[in-house]
């Protein structure tokens, strides 16, 4: 029996017919919606490579059933830049050399965006390390990642203050 | 993954009715269930997706001073709710010490209560496991079992309940509200769980069709100012407990009027240590009485394999948790929630 769901992905409404209930949100994005930026690492919620935002919150898309996300708003790595202008977190990852092979990077960046939205860690490196512990980097670019999150967090906070003023 | 029938009820009554189909299982966020389905350790015929039922994600403060937490409140939302953190700091600390930020954003309170053991043999269909397949045996006995139970285990199963959240909940007498085929009822969380005995496949007293709809906690005033959750794990973050302890003290004129203590990572259920609480009641806080309480809490413990070390580790984490609770709940949750390596006044760093 086919299942029909509709969701918003990177600002675009998508109606999807699923012929199988087992499809995860990760496989939906990669295999059906042609958005392979979100990576499949462990497929068990342990590595964080599949991190996306669901209704603005970072989650592991490998442990999310696509059918259950009928009506949800999804943001992937393909949806964070504004045209050619990188998202401040993307720019900070480049500035701080926060990756080597790059496989975990989309998940790291989505997780960092989620973390900054949550507003719990501020610029405390210890809290950032703890809040990013769901994202593994086998190349161990962690020092650069923490620096990138601190800088992006500051840039976004400054931009927010300018907007409020 | 075995395929399944998928239904999405709009109300609790529809969900309970849908559970009459054979092999039905409720699906909340699925962070544990989908994982087990992928490896073949869970094989439901029907998933009843309860995440679209309205009203199960509220945190309601009650007239009696307590709180009612809807079963679908996400772990992160509860742990970051300012009023909840003030009222039940050890519960918030336990939540934030569990899993990763991504998982806490998805995982629900009700799902946390019913998460399955992380025993590697349970999660591996090629291994013998009496819990997954009754009568097949237990490969954990004589296997890799340094993280397994030291209290309440039986030769049929030595697995532990992995939850952090449940440990302070049991210490604080949380109650689960259950909707079942015969209507609504309440079960103290401590009584929800079964010890393995000779039927480890029966993990809770829930009947087919039962749905946890909420958790309730009593007025927090007595315990909020002296409460901690401490957790030892094999890495600093994103790991299950080797052993953990929730300690909450009601202090009066320098004495412990009443103590609450529970352990995690030691048994098939969150383990309330009532004998230890009785020793602490009326005493002045101090290392000698804390050590006596710890001895009492582990009096019946015995190793189930290569895990005798957990017994002494549990005693020491109890002493540490009581010491920190007596020193007072920190103003702000530590950067590394529940870590014994966080620096805090009154902490002993030689566990």
Automatic annotation (TrEMBL), chain A:
Keywords: 2Fe-2S, Iron, Iron-sulfur, Metal-binding, Oxidoreductase. The keyword Oxidoreductase applies. It comes from the Bacteria. The keyword Repeat does not apply. Residues 3-80 form the 2Fe-2S ferredoxin-type domain. SUPFAM superfamilies: 2Fe-2S ferredoxin-like, CO dehydrogenase ISP C-domain like. Pfam families: Fer2, Fer2_2. One of its GO terms (molecular function) is oxidoreductase activity, acting on the aldehyde or oxo group of donors. This is (2Fe-2S)-binding protein.
UniProtKB/TrEMBL annotation, chain B:
The keyword Flavoprotein applies. Keywords: FAD, Flavoprotein. Pfam families: CO_deh_flav_C, FAD_binding_5. GO terms for molecular function: FAD binding; oxidoreductase activity. It comes from the Bacteria. SMART domains: CO_deh_flav_C. Residues 1-222 form the FAD-binding PCMH-type domain. InterPro entries: CO_DH_flav_C, CO_DH_flav_C_dom_sf, Diverse_Substr_Oxidored, FAD-bd_PCMH, FAD-bd_PCMH-like_sf, FAD-bd_PCMH_sub1, FAD-bd_PCMH_sub2, Mopterin_DH_FAD-bd. This is FAD-binding molybdopterin dehydrogenase. It comes from Reyranella soli.
